[in-house]
Amino acid sequence: MNATVNTSSFDEDTEDFLDDNYNSTTEVKSSKIALPTALHVLVDYRLAKKWLISAQADLSLVKNDNELANSVVNTITLAPRLETKWFSFYAPFSIRQYDDIAFGGGFRLGPLTVGSGSVFSNLLSDSSKATDVFVGLKIPIYRK
User: Fold this and answer.
1) What's the confidence (pLDDT) of residue 134?
2) Looking at residues 88-103, what average pLDDT do you find?
């Protein structure tokens, strides 16, 4: 950019403004951008009649050194839970890439589910790097 413009008099279309006030060059390049490919693994195991534990891994299959790539954050989660017909309680604990730890909790009461994967780590730590909340309502559709 090689011009100076008073921005208080700016009322043009942005593209017209740039064309009128700055010399431009055009360069066409082709590039390949990798999709955020990942491996997701989930194992659920019953410890006792109402006690279960699940383990989940989300692992990026895209190299981090590629600047034109999207990738997921590598995460490993353990979530113990108590389940009955009308009530469930669970407490997920996650270790994420970049040394981030998240601890959350949630419950299900009938068809309503409310929770967060990071509520406790956000309440207990000033250095938490993420937050989330979810709400779900199960609406059964019965067929004959």
Assistant:
1) 93
2) 90
